[in-house]
Amino acid sequence: MATKSFVLKVWRQDGPxxxxxxxxxxxxxxxxxxxASFLEMLDLINERLMxxxxxxxxxxSDCREGICGQCxxxxxxxxxxxxxxxxxxxxxxxxxxxxxxxxxEPFRATAFPVIKDLVVDxxxxxxxxxxxxxxxxxxxxxxDANSFKIGKEVSDRAFDAAACIGCGACVAACPNASASxxxxxxxxxxxxxxxxxxxxxxxxxxxxxxxxxxxFGHCSNIxxxxxxxxxxxxxxxxxxxxxxxLKAMLAGS
Amino acid sequence: MxxxxxALTSSLGxxxxxxxxxxxxxxxLVTHLAANLLLYLPEGELYNGYAxxxxxxxxxxxxxxxxxGGLFLFHAAVATGLHMKTAAARQKGYLEGQRSKGGNSRFGxxxxxxxxxxxxxFAFLVLHIIHFRFGPGIAEGYEAMVNGESARDLHRLxxxxxxxxxxxxxxxxxxxxxxxxxxxxxxxWLQSLGAMAPKYDKIIYSLGLLVALAFALGFLGIPFWYLLxxxxxxx
Lengths: 253, 235
What we know:
The complex is a heterodimer of chains A (253) and B (235). Chain A is of the alpha+beta class. Chain A has eight helices and nine strands.
């Protein structure tokens, strides 16, 4: 079983209002199993820190299989680390060189204030979602399963957008800290489906307004969000959001 | 119901305005480059004729110039507003800078620093207008005959100015920023209006490179043409 040692630097911050600093944890990052995931490596560091009577590193995680969107931090200047199409829990230490310097820090955005160490408050995403990321549900008897005819290719595209797990990597990776890919994905998943039609204009105008109010930056079409997205949501989602917004803007009523 | 005013002051709406004013400015660049290609001719007759024809518009030219100036100011003002808000969207950056994750990302100077290339172009524009539009004219001896009529010899002024390295080289350098600005801008204006689909993505982005190269090299060649005295060599 091969092990690796790293030069590890981690952002430590006691609370939202404390300034925070980088801590060199290299002495705790020796002899790490190379098949450990990035979060398992942090677990190991935390065990060692606690054995020394020190405060462990705070970080978010839940499923640890890349589908929940809880985990996320910036590793060497890249959201979720260097590997494409995965969250940081699916990044393994075998993808790092022995002795490599690893700098870990939280997602940075004014709309995502740091709570502690690597944990950020992403409730801004919930607010965007609550502003319009829903559909009206018909009550009464169950409608016939074939009453909505939706082509497979259309439902596939909507599903691709719906694969967004709301991890926030798009915001972290965007040089403008824009939430356009997230908001675009949440709008696209409904915009392509007939179920999303009744609220379409209201949805896009409210979600965009909320996104702006929360202090996210604008989209300048760089596309780093798409590269950082663990679910590989396409930039097309942003184009669809812009079309939806344009339609809502130009609509007479 | 989405009121027009609210829509156009949102982050998306401001990008629609950036796209619309940006493509209008590209339209101006097309006419400007087309005319400037006449500067590659050793004789100034055609170029001075074009300048005279514009000048003969009289008051209409002033209106057109003010409109064009307003368009530039508008494009720059909306961009500055967007930039200010975005600068506040991430107050603390990454410790050792950010690195791109590759893929289709356009992360890099042209895309990330539109505000810088744009700012440089704006400052250049002011100096450029003072330099040539309000530079020496007939009264200072730059007079040529066009179809038997007296006209400003703008061709000779440009040729003389660009023979000076301290003028030609900064002009050429600024055109590199124009190339960078158009390299991202040409793709970005379509995406900002939502006129983008993965199917067309690559071809339009490649077209952007061609457009950027055409404008940057077309303009950049003129100072070098005279600095290296190509017309003299061709004689």
